[in-house]
Amino acid sequence: MNVQDFVERIKRGDRRILAKAISFAENGHPIAKEILRQIYDKTGKAQVVGITGFPGTGKSTLVSKLVEEFRKRGKSVGVVAVDPSSPFTGGALLGDRLRLNGADVDKNLWTDERVFFRSMGSRGRLGGIAKKTGDVVKLLDAAGYDMILVETVGAGQGEIGILEVADTAIVVLMPEMGDDIQVNKAGILEIGDIFVINKSDLEGAENLERWLSFTLSLDSSDSAEKGSANAERWRKRVIKTVATRGEGIKELADAITEHFEFLKRSGTLEIKRAERTKMMALEIAMEEIRAEITKRCSNLLLDSKDPYTIAERILKDIIKI
Amino acid sequence: MEKIRVLIAKLGLDGHDRGAKIIARFLRDAGFEVIYTGLHRTPQEVARAVIDEDVDVLGISILSGAHIPLVPRVLDFITQYGGDPNEIVVVVGGTIPTEDIPKLKACGVDAVFIPGTPISEIIKFIKQKVAEKRRDNL
Ligand code: B12
Ligand SMILES: Nc1nc2c(ncn2[C@@H]2O[C@H](COP(=O)(O)OP(=O)(O)OP(=O)(O)O)[C@@H](O)[C@H]2O)c(=O)[nH]1
Ligand SMILES: [Mg+2]
């Protein structure tokens, strides 16, 4: 199959070909770049929602419930769920799919024609997503999925990577997660547009809500402010949920949709996306440069001098050409 | 080499998940990317996951005795959903009576691993077979 076949069949909604294209993208296969280039004009329709937060807060359970809710609202949904790869073996247990279809689903999400769920290993990248998560999102977007949910690795160490792919960032917290300092330290308060206090059936949810609402009210760096075309700002939301029982999911889905409306209305969406495209381009270029340098300089690195001098020589060599 | 992706599936009413979880763990430690379906999946669900996740290996764990109706049904649904079960490595593990092993192999299963099989043997088989299939699929 050539690039054109891939492109046509992805646009037509052939999920097997979409799945193959995703693998090519994940593996950095040269054909992936051509496919992505050619489907790019079909992208941009979907709302990309990132879901991040400490391990075990209930992200995957929430994702399942959100998929169900958006399906009820007539939307098709793509999911990309990232789990950590072992830095030692490269292996990974991709355990997010397991939560798809929790208790009492009306519709089977595993076999729903308009749901596409893909698990990814982080494959050595830090920040909560894999290097190729952005490419996978683009493929799902081109395939016509209305909503794309991206679940990050649950590390709670500032999963800043989500901002590279998501229009809307959701931070999931739960009661008894440790004290305020840890939440502050993790730097997740800055990245969220919507905060979910999941497991609200557990003790401490009210306290967490009070603290969170208060802290956010002090925060002047509202997400819309930087770059918003007009003065409208997004007021960060705090929503309590019990994902296992489906409580609070409607409110969360509403907030997600409202945030997208806000992004479009205020002109923030365009600005955010342009910025992301630039970052992505930089990333692609850097990758090529890194590969090129590594190739050309493999001998040079055997040089016994200090690393600063070697680096200088590498740069001179590259710039000269 | 490209990562080997594996789906470990449990079907029907079978609640024995120790073996499946142990296999999933060991395969991860051997460097594979392993997706576990959890208990009580239907053949349709597993077939869909095989296609969407684009796995190299489908591993079905069955200790309920229902392998004969269930395993062929999964493979049929993969075909029905536009996939090709011959492109992937299909292995079955669990309490499979020896007389059923040829039957499973006849419908497309590449190997059956009964209780007591050393895990190193399972890993070796999968690695070898995936390399073979990847050559064939080129
Ligand atoms: C522990 C056990 C249980 C536990 C299960 C706990 C759990 N969460 O897993 C409990 C007590 C809950 C249980 C319940 C039942 N059990 Co029970 N159970 C066993 C027992 C003793 C051991 C199974 C086990 O965990 N082995 C350890 C693991 C590591 O081994 P394994 O799963 O076989 O995996 C190895 C290989 O098979 C292979 N493998 C397995 N899966 C996979 C997958 C892949 C991809 C690969 C490559 C390899 C592979 O590799 C592994 C390593 O070598 C077996 C007896 C036996 N000899 O197997 C009976 C057995 C499986 N149970 C049996 C029965 C009948 C039941 C019950 C119906 C009993 C009842 N009347 O209530 C219930 C049914 C529960 C249910 N919903 O399914 C029968 C099944 C008969 C059949 N097949 O027709 C058995 C065989 C006992 C017997 N001789 O009668 N059981
Ligand atoms: N009590 C309670 N438990 C919940 C709730 N939501 C999820 N859980 C449980 O929390 C555990 C973890 O849920 P997951 O959805 O896997 O959490 P996760 O954030 O995706 O986990 P990682 O991906 O491993 O970081 C499971 O046992 C869920 O059943 C909830 O609202 N209340
Ligand atoms: Mg998860």
Descriptive account of the structure:
Chain A is an alpha/beta fold and 321 residues long. Helix content of chain A is 42%, strand content 13%. Chain A has helices at 3-11, 15-26, 30-39, 59-72, 133-142, 180-185, 205-218, 249-266, 268-296, 307-320; strands spanning 47-53, 77-83, 92-94, 115-121, 147-151, 168-173, 194-197, 237-240. In chain A, helix 2 (15-26) crosses helix 3 (30-39). The longest helix of chain A is centred in the C-terminal third of the chain and has 29 residues, at 268-296. Chain A starts with a helix and ends with a helix. The model of chain A has no long low-confidence stretch (mean pLDDT 87). Chain B starts with a strand and ends with a helix. With 138 residues, chain B is α/β, with parallel strands linked by helices. In chain B, helix 2 (43-52) crosses helix 3 (67-80). Chain B has a single domain (5-136), classed as Rossmann fold. Chain B contains five helices and five strands; from the N terminus they run E-H-E-H-E-H-E-H-E-H. At the A-B interface, helix 2, strand 3 and strand 4 of A face helix 1, strand 2 and helix 2 of B. Strand 3 (92-94) of chain A pairs parallel with strand 2 (33-36) of chain B. Bound molecules: cobalamin (B12), guanosine-5'-triphosphate (GTP) and magnesium ion.
